[in-house]
Amino acid sequence: MASPAARVCEQRAAAQGLGSSQEAVRYRGQDFETLRQQCLDSGVLFKDPEFPACPSALGYKDLGPGSPQTQGIVWKRPPELCPSPQFIVGGATRTDICQGGLGDCWLLAAIASLTLKEELLYRVVPRDQSFQRDYAGIFHFQFWQYGEWVDVVVDDRLPTKDGRLLFLHSEEGSEFWSALLEKAYAKLNGSYEALAGGSTVEGFEDFTGGISEFFDLKTPPASLYPTIRKALRMGSLLACSIDVSSAAETEVITSQKLVKSHAYSVTGVEEVDFCGRPEKLIRLRNPWGAVEWTGAWSDNAPEWNHIDPRQKEELDRQVEDGEFWMSFSDFLRQFSRLEICNLSPDSLSSEEVHKWNLVLFNGRWTRGSTAGGCQNYPATYWTNPQFKIRLDEVGEHPQEGSGEPCCTVLLGLMQKNRRRQKRMGRGLLSIGYAVYKVPKELESHTGFFLGHQPLACSSAYINWREVPARARLPLGEYLVGPSTFEPSQDGDFCPRVFSEKKAGALWIGDVAAGSPHEPRPSEVDRDEGQPHGRFEKLAGKSNGTGTLELAEFKTLWLKIQKYLEIYLETDDNDSGTIDAQEMRTALKKAGFTLNNQAQQAIATRAACSKLSVDFDGFVTCMIHVETLFKLFKLLDKDRNGIVSLSLAEAVLCVGLSQGCGLR
Known about the structure:
It is a single chain. By secondary structure, the protein is of the alpha+beta class. The chain has four domains: 4-208, no CATH class; 215-342, Cysteine proteinases (Cathepsin B, Chain A, Alpha-Beta Complex); 357-397 and 405-419 and 427-510, Jelly Rolls; 514-660, EF-hand (Recoverin, domain 1, Orthogonal Bundle), CATH 1.10.238.10. 28% of the residues lie in helices and 21% in strands.
């Protein structure tokens, strides 16, 4: 979890263009050009200290140090494997992607689809690298990660066994771009083993920054075939798979040579005249290469004898090794799921192409403050992060008879970094979201989950990296609540909203404001028979050294009484403590509205391990928060909500904040 200061720096850098496809973020701060030049100057091939060629790079369990699968593995550079290694031979093609001893066929299918569109390929695989010119044992690749592009460098030491590449490799033995790409992606996710198992759209999105949609092929929409045709024409990436009912069925080969739970790329569609009637065909590719469909319209099937020979010749010419044709009806019967990654993304709802508008946020669920769970937990659901979107323009393709003017939006909720955290036993969370229509009379309010039913929501809470959904919404303002299914589950997330027309958006909870309770002068001056003499005897005379004089003590005492009143109101079960999740309510009663980051910091550092806050901790937190607000107000001389701090002032603020964990 990045610190608040680091997040602020990241936000400022992004505002200046860092993280765009034109200016990728340097992963782990490693600059490819600088490192390559250093190696060329020294005459020493690059060895990556951030992802060394050692057992930890392979994995943590099945490929962990000392496991049987890792015995005999030797890391070798391409010049040690063949006399004249090449980065790319004759252009990148789908036959450059052959699966090795790693269960990452989902990634291979995504890479294979990437080769179909050169513009996309060379954004991920920069052209400026070779084994002949300026070779220094270092290569780099670029991936989209949660709203920004990152540039990942790797050395070219690859895991081998018996002199052959262990994982992804090219049919052309001297070609290494795909193996190095897999290594860079493994580095980004922590290890090679972290890549085992997944959905092809994860690779699609990390290669393009697009957003995906899922189609259940057991209940397909009537427009699915033209949707696929248009998606292919627009350069979208497509994959399909066959679901399994148990782990024992994984990668089982059916009687007609289809592989269950295996990711296939969809590479083409065509309609032919078959015996006087139209027949819809679809072309698929198996990353394994040799295992192909043997049913109708497969290679050398009798159906080919009943179409125009010229069309047959043309379709034969389009098919490479591992690719095959099948009828669209067989496709729907045999396969379970279709995934489409919309690159721009462009609308697939009509024949006209148009660009979408994107809004992206980064958020976090933190147990004790912003991890409220789903609607089944009304006591905490409202504490989840929320954001607003406003739709003011009608979409370009209104549906006939729909009545109210609408705009199409594509929403995606993505959880971050879970693949990297697999080695720590943290799998994907079950996530989802709900969309609430905000009545006009409440549009100025920040949230109203309780007592309202969502207008739209994700189809289910599910443990996918991204949960997407398409919706046509009437114009107006909407509140979106992303959440985990269970409360108190920590996780970073990234919601995205693609809309036909430009949409206004606001992240609820970014605003911090304070109007703390201040005792009135009459209350401080009131003489209630307090033992003045005893106070002065114990405290002595105040002389500016940090001790309290009587008036200051009375002010503090009145504040503590107010805080006790708030504390007792919040502790509605008389337990003597309050839950960290309830601190938001208590702070609001005390006059403070803190942003989500501050709420999360309080829950993380001010609460005990059971996520409860006692009265002493509550008072300490309140005093520190009040001090920080007063200090900021003092430093904000222009009253514009922005201050510039010297080093000494920053140190002072950090010192003041440590007591309540607002670092």
